[in-house]
Amino acid sequence: CTSEIEDIIYLPHHGCRAEIAVTELDAPNHLLFDAKATGNFGFKYDWTFESGPMASSQEVEYRINEIPMDGIETVLLEIESAGCSARRVRNQVVDSSALCNINFNYEVETAVFTSPETEPSDLGTVTVVYQDEMNNVYRSQIIEQPDWSSYNIIEVGDNYIDPLSGSVSQHTVIQTEFSVLLSNEKMGTIELRNCQAILPIR
C-alpha cells in the first residue's frame, strides 16, 4: 500500500490547522466532506476536487461520478482566517477499500539553530509519524532509508511573528520538506513523499 499525501501547516503552535472529515451518504462515492478548521474563527474555505467543481463552504456534498484511473480522488482544502492559513490534501480512495486512506501527523524534535547557514545535519532528531484509521502507528525510525528519502531545510528565519497579536519573538522559524519511508512492526511499510511544514523552534 502506497499513499502520497501533501500537508502544509502554517504556524501550528497556534492551532491553525485544516482537517478533512468524510462521511458516506446514500451510496458509495456519494460523500459529505467537512472542514475541521481549528484556531481562530471566521474561516474562509476553498475546496478543489480532482474530478469536479470547486466549493467554498465548510461542508460540501460531493458525488464522484467519474472515478479517476488510479481509483483515488485528490481533494484539496485551503483555509484562511486572521492572518493564519493552512492547506490539506486528502487522497480519498473511491470504489475500493480504504487501506491507503492515511491521516497525517508528525513529531519533530529539533536543536536550536545558530545561523541561517546551519546545515540540516544540525537539526537534531526528526521523527515523522502516521496514524491510520485503525490506529496503527507508522514511524520513520528505519535504519536504512531508500534513496528517495530526504529532509531538507527550505528557509530559515530569525524571528517568529505571532499571527494573532503580530508581536515578534526571538524564535528561529524553519520551513522544511521531507520524504520518508515509514514502518509498522505488524502492518509493514508505507511511503510518505513531498511533505512540507513551517515550524517555530523554541
Describe the structure.
The protein starts with 6 loop residues before the first strand and ends with a strand. It folds into two domains: 1-100, Immunoglobulins (Immunoglobulin-like, Sandwich), CATH 2.60.40; 102-202, no CATH class. Mean pLDDT is 67; it is low at 1-15 and 96-124. It is flat and about 45 Å long. It has strands at 7-9, 17-24, 30-38, 44-49, 59-63, 72-81, 84-93, 102-108, 126-132, 137-139, 150-157, 160-161, 168-169, 172-184, 188-201. It is mainly β and 202 residues long. A four-stranded antiparallel β-sheet has the order 1-7-6-4, with no helix packed on it.
Number of helices: 0
Unreliable parts? 1-15, 96-124
Which structural category fits the helices and strands?
mainly beta
- The span between the termini is 36 Å
Instruction: Indicate the proportion of strand residues.
Output: over 45%
Describe the sheet with the most strands: 4 strands, antiparallel
Shape: flat
What is the string of SSEs from the N terminus onward? EEEEEEEEEEEEEEE
| Whole-number tally of structural domains | 2
What keyword list fits this structure?
mainly beta; Immunoglobulin-like; 2 domains; four-stranded antiparallel β-sheet; three-stranded antiparallel β-sheet; flat; disordered N terminus
Nutshell version of this structure?
This protein is an all-beta fold and 202 residues long. The chain has strands at residues 7-9, 17-24, 30-38, 44-49, 59-63, 72-81, 84-93, 102-108, 126-132, 137-139, 150-157, 160-161, 168-169, 172-184, 188-201.
